Amino acid sequence: MVGTSRIKVLIRGLEPGSAYLAYLLAKSGDRVAIQTARPVDVYLYDLPPPNLFLKAGFLRDLLLVDFVDSADPRAFDVVVDSCDVEQDDVLRLYEGGRVFYVKQDPWLSATLSLSRGLPVPNVVDLPVDRTDRYEEVELRIREYAGAPYSLCRALDAASGKPYVPLRTLERVYMAADLFKELKGLGGRPPSLRLEYAVGRDVFFMGIGQEKAGKLSRVTAGGLTVWAYGEGAAVNYLLIKGDARSFKSALYIYNGLRLDRLFFLYDIAPERGAVNVAALGHLTRHGRSGDDIKYKNAS
User: Fold this and answer.
1) Is 1 among the domain residues?
2) Is 124 exposed, middle or buried (0-12, 13-18, 19+ CB in 10 A)?
3) Which side of the chain, N or C, has fewer Cβ within a 10 Å radius?
4) What is the pLDDT of residues 54-98, one digit of tens each?
C-alpha cells in the first residue's frame, strides 16, 4: 500500500476507468502519466447515446497529466495496466440501423439493438426478441499486462473465476477502489462482474459471472429480478426494468459488491428490490410458487 503521500503513477492504456483513475490521482496531487497509442477523448461508449466522459485535453492541460507513447516503469512508484480501446468503431455502430454482434461483448450488442428498437443477435442470452440476421464486428483492444495493478483483469467474487471487465461503469468503480487502496484509505472490495444493456425505455443488468444455484424470480419497485443462489449466498442476479430505474439496479450492484450480505439489511426497500430478490431463494422451501409479487415492501 502506497499511502497518502504524493506518488508518481504510470497508467498504461486510456479508457474510461483509467481516465477516471488519472483524474482522481491528479486531483489529489499525484504526478500521473498515461501511456497510450490513442490520446483521444474518452467516451461512455456502452451507454446510448455515447457520451463524453473525460476530455484528453482536460487531463493534459488542467490536471497536468502527461501523455506518452512509451515509458520506463522503473521511473514510477506505481504502475497500473489498462487498455486502449478503439472507440471510434463503436461510435460508428450507433449511427446505423442494422443488428450487430460485437464478438467480444454481447451485452454491447444488446445495447446497440435496444437503443434502436431492434431485436438482438440470437447469441445474446437475454429474454428479448432475437434475430438470426446480424453482422459480426470485432472491437480493437490493446491490453497492457505485467503491472501489479490492473483495470483489465479481475476475479469475480461470486464464482472465483477470472474475467476481463468490459462495462464502462464497472471500470470506473474499479478505478475508485484502486485509488482508495493506493492512497491508504482502505482495501479494495472484492470484484463482482457487472454487465448491462440499456436502450430506449428498458435495461438489463447481470451481476456476477455464473448462474449457479437455485432460481427465484420476484418483481418489486418496477424491477424484475432473477436471483440465483444457494444457502445464504447470492451467486448471480439478472435484473430487468425501465431505463429510469437503472440507478436502483446500481444500488443493488454496489451494495452486493461492498457487502455480500447486503440483502439482509432491510433499510431502504424503496430504492431497490435486492432484499426481496436475494431472499427469494433462501425462503424457497416455504413457498409454493417461484414468482411472488411484492408491493411496496417495507
Assistant:
1) no
2) buried
3) C
4) 899 999 999 999 999 999 999 999 999 999 988 888 888 888 889
